[in-house]
Design goal:
By secondary structure, the protein is an alpha/beta fold. The chain is built from 24 helices and 19 strands. The chain has a seven-stranded mixed sheet, with helices on both faces. A six-stranded parallel sheet has the order 2-1-3-4-6-5, with helices on both faces. Helix 4 links the parallel strand 3 and strand 4. The longest helix is centred in the middle third of the chain and has 17 residues. The radius of gyration is 24 Å and the shape is globular. The chain starts with 5 loop residues before the first helix and ends with a helix.
């Protein structure tokens, strides 16, 4: 009978928490562990072009799958990935970052090994990861099983990345196979506190004449979409999302009024939120891009904040209460209101006409941002995954109404340029049965373009819209319209899939009629990756972006 090793244990636990793919790059300190992955029936290795893209892919995979993993080699590999892991930390994505490390005896001797700084200090890179992970494990034969279980539990409980250092001589170390299935820890609310906070919240909300709900990223990370739906059904309250919470529910929901982004919001949304006599926020992060550069006006004395493990009511803080329990309790206790008494219009009633009636271009005029987003709205289907790059793509897509079951992926807080290409790989691997769509600008694409080859390597068939607006348009809007640092070398973008020798059809469009024909082809051709290069003027920007930058 084959021995059961630390590698077997780690992979079994990863499989038990729902991971079916691991992203990463081979290095001489992790290759023996990679052998285990390759030979493990329940998990598939997805090699990427570099470690940064592996971390982006893990982030995308984690958003769709609920948890993800990547593996890198010591020093050079893990530092290449740390930017992506930091992004996952900022945006609360559970990622298990595994580093293949030199053998423990080598580390104990302080030997001057390659991929180190030549100081004999083997802990320096792990100390860097302490700043961007919620827990760290340095595996030995003696502690491996308990440490693996500990950090995986924290990863799932906190919805944050964790770090595992796996030395070469621990990879093959023999341990006992687990006798039980891994059961993730669940945050338990304090009974007395949940009862008290429920009474307090119900009392405030029932007295309010114009309550409103703002739902955001926390609902997604704790997978409480249906609990949010139940609360809306129970109360009848209108609700909005912020940018990070876009697409929590279908944006045709009758109680959805739109996206609240401070002064950059649609005027009807801004007024309804800021004139409410009680605002119930659920999982909201008050970041600059989430609040229209901090132009949001929410009176703390009229706000109830529900977070993952605490609630803030006005100026009082209640710890040890889980978001899921609070939503459930409020759904059971709050009285249903007639929408007519709450004075709101649904987002569909306030939509730009271009999002309601399909537009047939049929003309040879250049494609504008406005025209593109109107056409894109009618291109979307139920259950689509939309990955939008930070920049004009993220802000343009933010106003497009999403259909039922659609998932919106955007790195609104961390905002690492180029994130979306790797993230698309992770999303498409996590849900190959769904249609994945990428919206990326030419400048961002140049950061991580090589991962297109990995997408083609695995015969994935996303639809990629590359907005060719001759450089960094969002940065031109912010500063330096004519400065050379916002310029890039033009590429023949739509020809890259051919360079990478993949199963793809590609096209470059610059007029409305050309775009319309390309969209029709993309709807019909599901057997190949679609790469549509869309040419726009370099100073054409979505109105919502310009409005926010004016704040």
């Amino acid at each position: 009978m084959a021995k059961f090793t630390v590698s077997d244990y780690l992979l079994l636990r990863l499989e038990q928490i729902g991971i079916k793919h691991i992203f990463g790059v081979a290095g001489d300190y992790n290759m023996e562990f990679l052998d285990y992955i390759v030979n493990h029936n329940g998990i598939k290795l997805i090699p990427t072009c570099n470690e940064l893209n592996a971390s982006y892919a893990a982030d995308g995979y984690g958003r769709i799958n609920g948890v993800a993993a990547l593996v890198t080699t010591f020093g050079v590999g893990e530092l290449s990935a740390i930017n992506g892991v930091a992004g996952a930390y900022a945006e609360h994505v559970p990622v298990v970052a595994i580093t293949g490390a030199p053998a423990t005896k080598i580390q104990a001797l302080g030997s001057l090994m390659h991929h180190t700084l030549g100081t004999g200090d083997f802990s320096i890179f792990a100390r860097m990861y302490q700043q961007v992970t919620a827990a760290q494990a340095y595996l030995t034969k003696e502690n491996a099983t308990t440490e693996i279980d500990r950090v995986l539990g924290i990863c799932l409980l906190k919805k944050l990345p964790v770090y595992i250092s796996l030395p070469m001589d621990v990879v093959l170390a023999e341990v006992s196979a687990p006798s039980d299935f891994f059961i993730p820890p669940v945050f338990q609310s304090d009974g007395a506190t949940i009862a008290e906070i429920t009474d307090v919240c119900v009392n405030i909300l029932e007295k309010a004449s114009q309550p409103v709900i703002i739902a955001d990223i926390g609902v997604a990370r704790y997978h409480l979409h249906e609990q949010l739906r139940e609360l809306l059904t129970a109360t009848g309250y209108p609700y909005a999302t912020m940018n990070m919470g876009k697409g929590l529910l279908e944006e045709t929901h009758p109680q959805f009024i739109g996206i609240y982004n401070g002064a950059a919001s649609e005027e009807s949304v801004r007024k309804r939120i800021e004139q409410a006599d009680c605002v119930l926020t659920i999982g909201a992060l008050m970041t600059d891009f989430n609040t229209g550069k901090f132009s949001a006006k929410l009176d703390p004395s009229q706000t109830i904040e529900v977070h993952g493990e605490y609630v803030k009511v006005k100026h009082a803080l209640y710890n040890n209460v889980a978001m899921a329990d609070v939503l459930s309790a409020l759904s059971q206790r709050l009285q249903h209101r007639d929408p007519q008494t709450l004075y709101f219009k649904s987002a569909t009633e306030n939509l730009d006409p271009g999002f309601i009636t399909p537009i047939e271009g049929g003309s040879s005029v250049p494609i504008t941002q406005k025209y593109f987003w109107h056409r894109f709205a009618h291109f979307l289907q139920e259950d689509d995954i939309i990955v939008a790059e930070t920049g004009t793509c993220l802000f343009g897509a933010s106003i497009v109404p999403l259909p039922k079951g659609a998932t919106f992926v955007g790195q609104v807080l961390w905002g690492s340029i180029g994130y979306s290409v790797g993230s698309l790989l992770g999303c498409a691997i996590a849900a190959s049965q769904r249609r994945s769509i990428l919206l990326v600008g030419d400048g961002s694409f140049q950061m991580t373009a090589q991962e297109l080859s990995t997408i083609l390597r695995h015969n994935l068939k996303p639809i990629i819209f590359l907005i060719n607006n001759d450089g960094y348009t969002i940065e031109r809007d912010i500063h330096g319209e004519r400065m050379p640092y916002n310029d890039i070398q033009p590429w023949n973008y739509h020809q890259l899939p051919k360079v990478f020798a993949g199963n793809a059809w590609t096209i470059k469009v610059s007029t409305e009629s050309e775009l319309d024909k390309a969209l029709q082809t993309a709807q019909q051709n599901r057997d190949q990756l679609a790469f549509i290069e869309v040419v726009m003027d370099k100073m054409d920007s979505p109105e919502v972006l310009l409005k926010m930058l004016q704040q």
